[in-house]
Write a structure and sequence with these properties.
Oligomer: single chain
Order of helices and strands: EEEEEEEEEEE
Number of strands: 11
Low-confidence stretches: none
Mean pLDDT: 96
Radius of gyration: 13 Å
Length: 124
């Protein structure tokens, strides 16, 4: 069992930056891939970024590539999402999730545990 708690969301102007954190409570954190997803009102949940168990491999969705960066600190049981050059279309609830596998994955079905989400609002 892994419990995930996101933080760091908020209101920011377009072009600004935010850093999301996701703290995990569970002994399996360092052995599984982690991911970030987001969901805007009226839209389906969208993949944002994923990172392998050791942090050596990562992948970002096309809509955030070059602007967002996922990282993790296994000593702190925490995964991060650095978001730069934010746009109005980045407005959504952001969720972190723990996968059932060690290597990164973009598939929602590969994620077993989810946080409660943190709201990010970008004003234009």
């Amino acid at each position: 069992q892994v419990q995930l708690v996101e933080s760091g969301g908020g209101l920011v102007q377009a072009g600004g930056s935010l850093r999301l954190s996701c703290a995990a409570n569970g002994h399996t954190f360092s052995s599984v891939a982690m991911g970030w997803f987001r969901q805007a009102p009226g839209k389906e949940r969208e993949f944002v970024a994923t990172i392998s168990w050791g942090g050596g491999s990562r992948y970002h969705g096309d809509s955030v590539k070059g602007r967002f960066s996922i990282s993790r600190d296994n000593a702190k049981n925490t995964v991060y999402l650095q978001m730069n050059s934010l746009r109005a279309e980045d407005t959504a609830v952001y969720y972190c999730a723990a996968a059932s596998r060690r290597e990164y994955t973009t598939r929602v079905d590969d994620y077993l545990y989810w946080g409660q989400g943190t709201q990010v609002t970008v004003s234009s």
